[in-house]
Amino acid sequence: MAAPDPIVPQTGSKQPGAAPPPATPGRSNEASSPMREAWGQFLKNRPAVFGLALLAVIVGLVLYGHFIFDADPYDIVWMPLTPPGEEEGIWLGTDFLGRDMFTGLMKGGAPTLAVGLSAALITVVIGITMGSLAGFFGGWLDDLLMRLTEFFQVLPALLFAMVLVTLFSPSLWTIAFAIGIVSWPQTARLTRAEFLRIRELEYVTAARSIGAGNGRIIWRVILPNALPPLIVSATLTIGVAILFEAGLSFLGLGDPNTMSWGLMIGQNRNYLLDAWWPVTLPGLAIFLTVFAVSLVGDGLNDAFNPKLRSR
Amino acid sequence: MADPLMSLRDLRVEFDTRHGRVTALSGISLDVMPGETLGIVGESGCGKSITALAMMGLVPNPPGHVTGGQILFQGEDITRAKPRRLRRLRGREIAMIFQEPMTSLNPVFTVGDQIAEAILLHQDVSRAQAEKQVVDLLATVGIPEPARRAKAYPHELSGGMRQRVMIAMAISCRPKLLIADEPTTALDVTVQAQIFDLMRDIQREFGVAIVLITHDMGAIAEMTDRVAVMYAGRIIEQGTSDQILDNPLHPYTRGLIGCIPVLGREAGDAASLPPLAEIPGIVPPLHLLGDGCAFAERCALADDYCRAVRPPLEEKGHPVACHHAGQGVPA
């Protein structure tokens, strides 16, 4: 279209008393997006900021720890089951084979976090796809996808994941995949609920009225508005997935060739009565990580929930 | 007379509800001429908004179905158009503005982004060109500091400003038909007047035909060339605005006109003037409509014949659907 001649609005001249509405008063000139506002709200939440800092420390140690303390976690360094602090240089003791606990904790974090993140990612991708299709299109597709979701939901999660891991090789990928497969139904249901709510709102009709198609409405209109609860749920899923991985490893279904926190617990559990540290220390690491993730998730929840604002 | 821009031919729309299938529109026929303003007036639940959505091909489905009739836009029946063709018509040829400017903008994108999106959907221009058009459009609809406002999020604007943004989005591709579904209902009175002024300016500048849907007879008097009065899914009276306002024939139309408060009427005059009229009762639920006139239950003139036989839309000076058209005390 040709550049339109700017028409000077005539309202003012025709009705001397009626000036155009004043620029929104009392607001700063900075445009503030809903996401930026939520972030500001998040930063006011002390437990959440603490959780984020704790998570940053853990991730930092796991990713960059080996630059400082480079050692092979499979090396046998001292007597088996040496208590922490007994021997100089072996601050956290040794496990049942005499391997250094500290090195193990450093090296074992990366696979644990990787499995947690990948599982959460798989959960989110499957869950959002299923949920948005079901919620947006409704009808028989909704029925079909929701029955499928319920089928996966009623499967005993741990048992099903164990079957999957046993059938295929217990690699990190299989474990992440198994966790993702058993945890997506919740995300799907949440996404569907949000889509059902948002698709009835007027701005969706308005988007249609300018000629937007289904794909654009799903991606550009509904999904961005459905994101806040999904972000919260995805964050919490990371924590759940880490616990799940630990659970599988504890039952001896972890990847035996990759040092992870779960594997350390699983391999040392037979010696728990003789030595508490080879099980407790990785457990503590898992606890702190999941704790930090949960604090961040709760903080996000509060930040996105307008009803909790200004408290 | 020129060909109508849009015409509805005996349009029927039905909805599936828990009371079974009910008829929301039973045989609506309407013409919209290029460049004119047509008013559609009636209470809540009369089928005004469904008519508007049907004109966009946007009857919500499920639960709604267009079960009969035609919607001709420049001779093309859009009830049979393919979705792809419909998407090209929407926004480009037919645009719509909504009742609630608070909820008809997407809260997570800036208003500039949303207008640019409408432009990019229909025009082969670059992002930068679209953004330049956005600023021009915002200036056109009378938004001060358009370049800065384009970067604002909807919640940062007042209701009147948001409605201006909606109008800017609606006219971004110079449509031939603009459907305004109660565009000022959610706004206060001074802003209403400004929005109507703006719509008139837009009409003069772009030559767009406007379908104004409202329950406010004052808005009809101010804005429209022709009027269709709807009740319970049917058109019950149709004519030029002057015909309808000066010589209403249907008791329902008279009731609606009686509801307009007259400025300057003093409380002391109450003895000489009738009080502000009201129409008793409510629009009957669609699933409870019988064979007779849908308005009979609320009508002072109704008799047994009214309750038994539905009056057809007949020419009685102008088309009206009433057995007692023009009888009784004029409003």
Describe this structure in words.
The complex is a heterodimer of chains A (311) and B (331). By secondary structure, chain A is mainly α. Chain A has one domain (35-63, 90-308): MetI-like (MetI-like fold, Orthogonal Bundle), CATH 1.10.3720.10. Helices cover 67% and strands 0% of the residues of chain A. Chain A has eleven helices and no strands. Chain B is globular and about 65 Å long. Helix content of chain B is 31%, strand content 22%. By secondary structure, chain B is α/β, with parallel strands linked by helices. In chain B, a hairpin with a 3-residue loop joins strand 11 (314-315) and strand 12 (319-320). Chain B has eleven helices and twelve strands. The two termini of chain B are 32 Å apart. Classes of the chains: A mainly alpha (311), B alpha/beta (331). Chains A and B meet through helix 8 and helix 9 of A and helix 2, helix 3, helix 4, helix 6 and helix 7 of B.
> Helicity of chain A, in percent?
55-70%
- Terminal CA distance of chain A: 50 Å
| Class based on secondary structure composition and strand pairing of chain B | alpha/beta
Assembly state: heterodimer
**What do the pLDDT scores of chain A average to?**
81
Largest sheet of chain A: none
Q: What is the approximate shape of chain A?
A: elongated
Q: First CA to last CA of chain B: what distance?
A: 32 Å
- In CATH, the topology of chain A is named MetI-like fold
Assigned CATH superfamily of chain A: MetI-like
How large is the count of helical segments of chain B?
Answer: 11
Mean pLDDT of chain B comes to: 85
The number of distinct structural domains of chain A comes to 1
Which spans of chain B have pLDDT < 50 for at least 5 consecutive residues?
none
Strand order of the largest sheet of chain B: 6-7-8-3-9-10
Which percent bin holds the helix content of chain B?
25-40%
**What proportion of the residues of chain B form beta strands (DSSP E)?**
15-25%
Topology:
The complex is a heterodimer of chains A (311) and B (331).
Chain A: H1 11-14, H2 34-43, H3 46-68, H4 101-137, H5 139-154, H6 157-167, H7 172-198, H8 202-209, H9 214-250, H10 261-268, H11 277-304
Chain B: E1 6-17, E2 20-32, E3 37-41, H1 48-55, E4 64-73, E5 76-77, H2 83-89, E6 94-97, H3 111-122, H4 127-140, H5 146-149, H6 159-171, E7 177-181, H7 189-206, E8 209-214, H8 217-223, E9 226-231, E10 234-240, H9 241-246, H10 251-258, H11 304-308, E11 314-315, E12 319-320
Helix pairs in contact in B: 3-4, 3-6, 4-6, 6-7
